[in-house]
Amino acid sequence: MVTQHTKDMVNPEFIDAVVKYTSQKESKSATNVSCILGYLCDNFDGLPVEAKQIREHHWKPYVEKLFNRKILKGAEKSFTGLLELNNFEANGKNVSRDYEEYVLLSGDFDERVFLSENAEVEIGTPLKMNQLEVDVTSRRNFEVWHLQSLLARLKSVPSEGLVAIFKECKANLQEDIEKRVNELGEQFSVKYTQ
Q1: 3-class DSSP state of 75
Q2: Where is each Retinoblastoma-associated protein A-box domain found (predicted)?
Q3: Does residue 91 contact residue 72 with C-beta atoms inside 8 Å?
Q4: Of 28, 50, 52, 75, which residue is least crowded by CB atoms under 10 Å?
Q5: Dmax over Cα atoms in the chain, in whole Å?
Protein backbone atom coordinates (compact mmCIF):
# COMPACT_ATOMS: atom_id res chain seq x y z
CA MET A 1 0.00 0.00 0.00
CA VAL A 2 1.27 3.41 -0.87
CA THR A 3 0.18 6.97 -0.33
CA GLN A 4 1.25 10.07 -2.21
CA HIS A 5 2.88 11.71 0.81
CA THR A 6 4.67 8.82 2.47
CA LYS A 7 6.96 11.19 4.37
CA ASP A 8 3.98 12.39 6.45
CA MET A 9 3.30 8.87 7.69
CA VAL A 10 6.74 7.66 8.68
CA ASN A 11 9.71 9.25 10.43
CA PRO A 12 11.46 11.33 7.72
CA GLU A 13 14.87 10.01 8.74
CA PHE A 14 13.62 6.48 8.15
CA ILE A 15 12.23 7.37 4.73
CA ASP A 16 15.50 9.09 3.81
CA ALA A 17 17.39 5.93 4.79
CA VAL A 18 15.01 3.81 2.67
CA VAL A 19 15.39 6.16 -0.30
CA LYS A 20 19.18 6.10 0.01
CA TYR A 21 19.22 2.29 0.44
CA THR A 22 16.85 1.65 -2.46
CA SER A 23 18.61 4.12 -4.77
CA GLN A 24 21.91 2.36 -4.17
CA LYS A 25 20.46 -1.14 -4.60
CA GLU A 26 18.11 -0.64 -7.52
CA SER A 27 19.23 2.73 -8.94
CA LYS A 28 15.76 4.24 -8.60
CA SER A 29 15.00 7.86 -7.98
CA ALA A 30 13.54 8.91 -4.64
CA THR A 31 10.13 9.56 -6.21
CA ASN A 32 9.77 5.95 -7.36
CA VAL A 33 10.45 4.35 -3.98
CA SER A 34 7.28 2.60 -2.88
CA CYS A 35 8.37 -0.57 -1.09
CA ILE A 36 10.46 -0.72 2.06
CA LEU A 37 10.55 -4.52 2.36
CA GLY A 38 14.14 -4.82 1.15
CA TYR A 39 15.38 -2.20 3.59
CA LEU A 40 13.48 -3.70 6.53
CA CYS A 41 14.63 -7.25 5.79
CA ASP A 42 18.29 -6.32 5.34
CA ASN A 43 18.45 -4.12 8.42
CA PHE A 44 16.24 -6.11 10.79
CA ASP A 45 17.20 -9.75 10.13
CA GLY A 46 14.33 -10.50 7.76
CA LEU A 47 14.25 -12.80 4.77
CA PRO A 48 13.48 -10.71 1.67
CA VAL A 49 12.36 -13.67 -0.44
CA GLU A 50 9.85 -14.82 2.19
CA ALA A 51 8.61 -11.28 2.78
CA LYS A 52 8.07 -10.74 -0.95
CA GLN A 53 6.42 -14.16 -1.27
CA ILE A 54 3.99 -13.32 1.53
CA ARG A 55 3.31 -9.94 -0.09
CA GLU A 56 2.69 -11.42 -3.56
CA HIS A 57 0.86 -14.65 -2.69
CA HIS A 58 -1.04 -13.78 0.49
CA TRP A 59 -1.27 -10.03 1.06
CA LYS A 60 -2.00 -8.82 -2.49
CA PRO A 61 -4.72 -11.44 -3.24
CA TYR A 62 -6.40 -10.63 0.07
CA VAL A 63 -6.34 -6.88 -0.60
CA GLU A 64 -7.69 -7.54 -4.12
CA LYS A 65 -10.51 -9.57 -2.56
CA LEU A 66 -11.30 -6.64 -0.25
CA PHE A 67 -11.43 -4.33 -3.29
CA ASN A 68 -13.72 -6.76 -5.15
CA ARG A 69 -16.07 -6.89 -2.16
CA LYS A 70 -16.08 -3.06 -2.08
CA ILE A 71 -14.61 -2.99 1.43
CA LEU A 72 -11.55 -0.92 0.42
CA LYS A 73 -11.53 2.32 -1.54
CA GLY A 74 -8.58 3.47 -3.62
CA ALA A 75 -6.80 2.49 -6.82
CA GLU A 76 -7.28 -1.25 -7.26
CA LYS A 77 -4.45 -1.81 -9.72
CA SER A 78 -1.69 -0.03 -7.83
CA PHE A 79 -3.05 -0.32 -4.27
CA THR A 80 -2.61 3.43 -3.89
CA GLY A 81 -5.00 5.81 -2.22
CA LEU A 82 -5.89 3.43 0.60
CA LEU A 83 -4.40 5.73 3.21
CA GLU A 84 -5.45 9.03 1.62
CA LEU A 85 -7.57 11.30 3.80
CA ASN A 86 -10.74 10.84 1.75
CA ASN A 87 -10.52 7.00 1.96
CA PHE A 88 -8.72 6.35 5.24
CA GLU A 89 -11.66 6.58 7.65
CA ALA A 90 -14.05 4.60 5.44
CA ASN A 91 -11.41 1.90 4.82
CA GLY A 92 -10.68 1.63 8.54
CA LYS A 93 -14.36 1.26 9.43
CA ASN A 94 -15.03 -1.21 6.61
CA VAL A 95 -12.05 -3.42 7.50
CA SER A 96 -13.01 -3.32 11.18
CA ARG A 97 -16.63 -4.26 10.36
CA ASP A 98 -15.46 -7.08 8.09
CA TYR A 99 -13.16 -8.41 10.81
CA GLU A 100 -15.95 -8.29 13.41
CA GLU A 101 -18.20 -10.22 11.04
CA TYR A 102 -15.45 -12.80 10.51
CA VAL A 103 -14.92 -13.20 14.26
CA LEU A 104 -18.66 -13.65 14.86
CA LEU A 105 -19.11 -16.13 12.02
CA SER A 106 -16.05 -18.20 12.82
CA GLY A 107 -16.62 -18.16 16.57
CA ASP A 108 -13.01 -17.13 16.97
CA PHE A 109 -11.61 -14.94 19.74
CA ASP A 110 -11.21 -11.23 19.03
CA GLU A 111 -7.65 -10.31 20.03
CA ARG A 112 -8.43 -6.59 19.91
CA VAL A 113 -9.73 -6.72 23.49
CA PHE A 114 -6.10 -6.79 24.61
CA LEU A 115 -5.33 -3.50 22.83
CA SER A 116 -7.51 -1.35 25.09
CA GLU A 117 -5.82 0.91 27.62
CA ASN A 118 -7.98 -0.63 30.35
CA ALA A 119 -7.57 -4.20 29.09
CA GLU A 120 -6.26 -5.46 32.41
CA VAL A 121 -9.30 -4.10 34.26
CA GLU A 122 -11.88 -4.91 31.58
CA ILE A 123 -10.70 -8.45 30.91
CA GLY A 124 -9.86 -9.34 34.49
CA THR A 125 -8.54 -12.68 35.57
CA PRO A 126 -10.30 -16.02 35.36
CA LEU A 127 -12.28 -17.04 38.41
CA LYS A 128 -11.76 -20.35 40.11
CA MET A 129 -14.55 -22.80 39.37
CA ASN A 130 -15.52 -23.17 43.04
CA GLN A 131 -16.31 -19.43 43.21
CA LEU A 132 -19.10 -19.71 40.66
CA GLU A 133 -22.49 -20.19 42.22
CA VAL A 134 -25.22 -21.07 39.76
CA ASP A 135 -28.76 -21.35 41.02
CA VAL A 136 -31.18 -23.96 39.76
CA THR A 137 -33.20 -21.51 37.68
CA SER A 138 -30.13 -20.22 35.85
CA ARG A 139 -28.98 -23.74 35.13
CA ARG A 140 -32.43 -24.72 33.82
CA ASN A 141 -32.61 -21.63 31.65
CA PHE A 142 -29.17 -22.36 30.24
CA GLU A 143 -30.11 -25.98 29.52
CA VAL A 144 -33.31 -24.90 27.76
CA TRP A 145 -31.37 -22.30 25.76
CA HIS A 146 -28.79 -24.94 24.83
CA LEU A 147 -31.52 -27.37 23.79
CA GLN A 148 -33.22 -24.67 21.71
CA SER A 149 -29.96 -23.81 19.98
CA LEU A 150 -29.40 -27.48 19.15
CA LEU A 151 -32.93 -27.91 17.81
CA ALA A 152 -33.18 -24.56 16.02
CA ARG A 153 -31.48 -25.77 12.86
CA LEU A 154 -33.37 -29.08 12.74
CA LYS A 155 -36.69 -29.80 11.05
CA SER A 156 -39.70 -31.03 13.00
CA VAL A 157 -40.27 -33.91 10.57
CA PRO A 158 -38.10 -36.95 9.89
CA SER A 159 -35.64 -36.69 7.01
CA GLU A 160 -36.17 -38.57 3.76
CA GLY A 161 -33.38 -40.98 4.70
CA LEU A 162 -35.02 -41.80 8.03
CA VAL A 163 -38.41 -42.31 6.36
CA ALA A 164 -36.73 -44.72 3.89
CA ILE A 165 -35.25 -46.68 6.82
CA PHE A 166 -38.68 -46.84 8.49
CA LYS A 167 -40.20 -48.23 5.28
CA GLU A 168 -37.62 -51.04 5.21
CA CYS A 169 -38.68 -52.23 8.69
CA LYS A 170 -41.39 -54.87 9.09
CA ALA A 171 -43.14 -53.07 11.96
CA ASN A 172 -44.32 -49.48 11.60
CA LEU A 173 -41.70 -47.77 13.77
CA GLN A 174 -42.47 -44.25 12.62
CA GLU A 175 -45.81 -44.05 14.46
CA ASP A 176 -44.31 -45.53 17.65
CA ILE A 177 -41.39 -43.11 17.60
CA GLU A 178 -43.61 -40.08 16.89
CA LYS A 179 -45.91 -41.11 19.74
CA ARG A 180 -42.95 -41.47 22.13
CA VAL A 181 -41.47 -38.10 21.06
CA ASN A 182 -44.82 -36.39 21.67
CA GLU A 183 -45.07 -37.99 25.13
CA LEU A 184 -41.56 -36.84 26.01
CA GLY A 185 -42.37 -33.33 24.75
CA GLU A 186 -45.47 -33.16 26.95
CA GLN A 187 -43.49 -34.42 29.97
CA PHE A 188 -40.83 -31.81 29.32
CA SER A 189 -43.41 -29.02 29.07
CA VAL A 190 -45.09 -30.09 32.32
CA LYS A 191 -41.77 -30.32 34.21
CA TYR A 192 -40.49 -27.05 32.76
CA THR A 193 -43.56 -25.05 33.78
CA GLN A 194 -43.56 -26.32 37.39
Answers
A1: strand
A2: 145-194
A3: yes
A4: 50
A5: 87
Phi, psi of 80 (to 5 degrees): -100, 160
* Other CB atoms within 10 Å distance of the CB of residue 91: 19
Q: For residues 48 and 40, is the Cβ–Cβ distance under 8 A?
A: no
Helix 173-193 to helix 160-168 angle, to the nearest 10 degrees? Answer: 130
Higher-confidence position of 5 and 148: 148
pLDDT at 33: 47
Of 1, 48, 56, the closest CA to residue 26 belongs to 48
pLDDT digits (tens, 9 = 90+) for 96-150: 888 888 887 777 777 777 777 776 676 766 655 555 667 778 888 888 888 888 7
The phi and psi torsions of 27 (rounded to 5 degrees) equal 45, 55
Whole-number Å distance between alpha carbons of 12 and 50: 27
